[in-house]
Amino acid sequence: MRRSGELVQWNNKGGYGFVRDDTGRDYYVHISKVAGDGRPRIGDRVSFETATGRKGRPSAVDVIITTAIPAPQPATLRDIKQSPAGMSRYRLGLRTAAATLMTLLILWAIGTDRTPEWIGLLYAAMGAGSALLYRFDKLYALTGKYRVSETNLHVVDLSFGIIGGLAAQEVYRHKTVKPRFVATTWTIALVHTLFLAGLAFGWLGALLPA
């Protein structure tokens, strides 16, 4: 007599698991006893025949998946832009504050003729490049592809891309946890903040050509 039940445990690598019938009894099941080419998932509803397997344990054979659980959809950038539960918005907001401060220093320095306009264009161009690298790295992480190295991310941030890098870290919720990476990022941000403050308030004098 065929029984119906639900797959309650499954080892995808080993190809085995357990089916629990409607009376609450568990049956061992091997992938070789599951009809079709697809892999079952925990939560699938199945129908099956019973048999006595090795060591005398009850087993499910001739297993047919009657109601399959849909495959999980991969995360997208839209998903990760939303704050995870329990994550401090204040903590991440520091990146926006730092990027905004540096932007204001650039505008102040240019507006007071203490810095040539090409400095602002350089920060804008490199910032856009840095933001794109963070975006690509996050997408690669979601899809399991080759990652952008942390060294390259830091080099671009140091090379006037730090404003875009900080903004991208916050927007994509990326590279905001690993202590060593975070410490290096904030060191780069501090260097550029001091540099821009020096330009904005004239502390560096005629350091840059017009």
Order of helices and strands: EEEEEHHHHH
Cα-atom Rg, whole angstroms? 28 Å
Mean pLDDT: 86
How does the helix and strand content classify structurally?
alpha+beta
Distance between the termini: 89 Å
Q: What's the quaternary structure here?
A: single chain
Number of strands: 5
Set out the fold topology.
Layout: E1 3-11, E2 16-21, E3 26-30, E4 45-52, E5 58-67, H1 77-80, H2 89-111, H3 117-143, H4 150-172, H5 179-200
Antiparallel strand pairs: 1-2, 1-4, 2-3, 4-5
Overall description:
With 210 residues, the chain is an alpha+beta fold. The protein folds into 2 domains: 3-67, OB fold (Dihydrolipoamide Acetyltransferase, E2P), CATH 2.40.50; 77-200, no CATH class. The protein has helices at 77-80, 89-111, 117-143, 150-172, 179-200, and strands at residues 3-11, 16-21, 26-30, 45-52, 58-67. A 5-stranded antiparallel sheet has the order 3-2-1-4-5, with no helix packed on it. Helix 2 packs parallel to helix 5 (179-200). The longest helix has 27 residues, at 117-143. The protein is rod-shaped, with a radius of gyration of 28 Å. The termini are far apart. The model is unreliable at 83-90 (pLDDT under 50).
Which key features would you list for this structure?
alpha+beta; 47% helix; 5 helices; 210 residues; five-stranded antiparallel sheet; 5 strands; rod-shaped; OB fold (Dihydrolipoamide Acetyltransferase, E2P)
Task: Give me a quick take on this structure.
With 210 residues, this protein is an alpha+beta fold.
